[in-house]
Target: Aldolase
Amino acid sequence: MDFSTALRTERLVAIIRGRDPEASFRTVMALAEADIPLIEISLSGADALTVIRRARAELGDAAWLGAGTVLTGDDARRAAEAGANLIVTPGLGAGLEESVRQGLPTLAGVLTPSEVIAAEALGVSALKLFPASAGGPAYLRALRGPFPELPFVPVGGVDATVAQAYFDAGAVAVGVGSPLVGDAADGGDLDELRKRAAEFKAVCAR
Model:
């Protein structure tokens, strides 16, 4: 299925930003095994491109593997070369523009109405409301007033409880980092990660 369909179906993007590349790779695999198919590996994590490359080799061409914190055109190109088929940015800029130019699905970081308009004009796939904690579900509800049909994905401070509030406010999906991943990408307990994954899956399935 295409990215927009996968996003609306799964309603969860897992975000990995690890200090240990081997642990980050194991985290990707554990999330995939837990049936969380939309996984973003932040380029601000240690050796992120190698993690993406290894995960792509292991999971195959069909898996959704995103590169996050894409800031520059070079970031976008290197991420695509490593096997990323989804680009996630914290805001607007050269990285987003290059990703769109390459035809890659994009989750573009926005916060204000002006940024929403600019991102939509670029032809992005979905809008990453970031940092979502700056306004919470009430802000998303207000933002959807002038943009009722656009796909918003809140990211930043989203735990399992707040995730439901965002869905109630009209989010198509949520992006979740530490409340889901915890310390797994730094060498933490993968069994605990699997428990948290099950909790988020249950919320997203409601």
Summary: The longest strand covers residues 12-16. The chain has one domain: 3-205. Residues 3-205 form a domain with the TIM Barrel fold (CATH 3.20.20.70). The CA atoms of residues 110 and 116 lie 6 Å apart.
